[in-house]
Design brief:
The structure holds 2 protein chains of 2 kinds. Chain A is an all-alpha fold. Chain A contains 3 helices and no strands. Chain A is elongated and about 40 Å long. The longest helix of chain B has about 60 residues. By secondary structure, chain B is an all-alpha fold. Chain B is built from 10 helices and no strands. Chains A and B meet through helix 1 and helix 2 of A and helix 6 and helix 7 of B.
């Protein structure tokens, strides 16, 4: 249960931070790439509990 | 209505037997719960005692007036909707501000400023929804615990009664099965299913912050999984109990019929009368057992009705807010409000399933040995 809490908290904080960072990004051609990297980070966080099964 | 003594034996009046048997039972704990539950249900149900229920069985009177009951339920539902309107109005006003910010973003000329405004408004909506959802969650958890407690008090009264009317093997088998099922189910709901629903609603809300959908599928998946798990648990536990009940019922019938037959045939002259009076006492005990079982059902319904009405009212508010927010606010906000409505409905469904399982347990106990004994 603690693990689950940690996981949810991580996703929550991550998405909140990413939203604010996205806002502060300058409008440039790089924006799309950065957003893509962000979504990769979110995916990695969602998948993170799987690490326990792999160990 | 006057009760005549059909048996023609002076001391075999069923009312006196019922009275005697009722006096031996200690029902104060149960009746305390009934009073609390009736109070909690805001006058939808009135407090009944086991004695009243048994009396109304014999006289053939209905326990509740259906029309008045439905009227009460409708009144309470409307009251809860009125109480929940505050939340709806708050969310709608924030959404209107959000729409203003979004549509006037051109006059600010700066994209980050208007996005920041939108995000801050979304944060406000999230806070409001989470606060409200916490209340729903707590009431759901509380109701679940009270219902489990009621069952745990009810079973030690019902099972000895079941055994006393000859359900030796039924009582012996059903008691541990039902007790175990209730305890396991309560733990599963508390530790897994309700937290999963909570997490799912957190994901739904956080999803409304971003323009892109990051976790909406995850949220829906978690909710479906929770619902599926509840359904599975209810099916397994009720199935197991029902099979046990059916299997042992026949064995009990065998035992009781053998006992009666031997009293009838092997004791000369008075044997026939003795067998008849055994039947009489057993039927009285069965009536009391069913009366207490019905009392249990009424208590469970009492405990269930208020939280479910409250939760459904909140769900209606969420859905209406989603409908109203759609034209003014962003697509994400209205979608997430809609999903929140579904999440809240899921809570009510889980609670309902839990109550359904308890009702089935009680019905199984009532069904054993009811009416004509073991035939």
């Amino acid at each position: 249960m603690e693990l689950m809490k940690e996981w949810v908290k991580n996703i929550f904080i991550l998405i909140l931070t990413l939203t604010f960072i996205e806002m502060l990004l300058p409008l440039s051609r790089m924006e799309k790439f950065i957003k893509f990297v962000f979504s990769l980070i979110v995916m990695a966080t969602i998948l993170s509990p799987l690490l326990i099964f792999l160990e | 209505m006057k009760h005549t003594n059909k048996e023609g034996k002076g001391d075999m009046d069923y009312e006196s037997i019922l009275k005697e048997q009722m006096e031996k039972l200690n029902l104060t704990e149960l009746e305390d719960i009934m009073e609390d539950a009736a109070e909690q249900s805001n006058g939808i149900f009135s407090a009944l005692s086991a004695d009243e229920i048994v009396q109304s069985f014999i006289k053939g009177e209905p326990l509740f007036d259906t029309e008045i009951l439905l009227e009460h339920i409708w009144d309470v539902f409307l009251y809860e909707i009125r109480a929940g309107l505050v939340l709806g109005v708050e969310i709608i006003s924030i959404c209107i501000v959000m729409g203003l910010l979004k549509n006037f973003s051109n006059s600010f000329g700066d994209k980050p400023v208007s996005t920041l405004g939108t995000v801050v408004c979304s944060c406000l909506v999230i806070t409001l929804c989470l606060r409200d959802f916490m209340i729903t969650y707590e009431s759901c958890l509380g109701t679940l615990n009270i219902m489990t407690n009621t069952m745990q008090i009810l079973l030690p009264i019902l099972i000895p009664l079941l055994i006393s009317i000859g359900g030796f093997s039924s009582g012996g088998v059903l008691n541990p099965v039902i007790m175990g099922a209730i305890t396991i189910f309560n733990t599963v709901l508390q530790k897994f299913i309700l937290p999963i629903l909570f997490i799912s609603s957190i994901f739904i809300l956080i999803n409304s912050l971003t323009e892109k959908d990051y976790v909406s599928r995850l949220a829906v998946f978690l909710r479906r999984a929770a619902l599926f798990l509840t359904g599975l648990a209810v099916t397994i536990f009720t199935g197991l109990t029902a099979i046990q009940g059916l299997a042992t019922k026949t064995a009990d019938g065998l035992l009781v019929n053998t006992a009666r037959y031997s009293v009838d045939n092997f004791i000369p002259i008075v044997g026939g009368f003795a067998a008849d009076s055994v039947d009489m006492v057993l039927s009285c005990a069965a009536v009391i057992k069913n009366g207490i079982g019905v009392l249990g059902i009424v208590i469970i319904l009492c405990l269930l009705v208020m939280p479910v009405l409250k939760i459904l009212a909140i769900a209606v508010i969420y859905k209406l807010t989603a409908v109203l927010a759609e034209p003014v606010a962003t697509k994400q906000i209205s979608a997430s409000l809609n999903e929140m409505g579904s999440a809240v409905i899921t809570m009510a469904v889980v609670l309902g399933l839990c109550a359904l399982m308890f009702l089935i347990f009680l019905t199984i106990i009532i069904g054993i040995g009811g009416g004509r004994l073991w035939n």
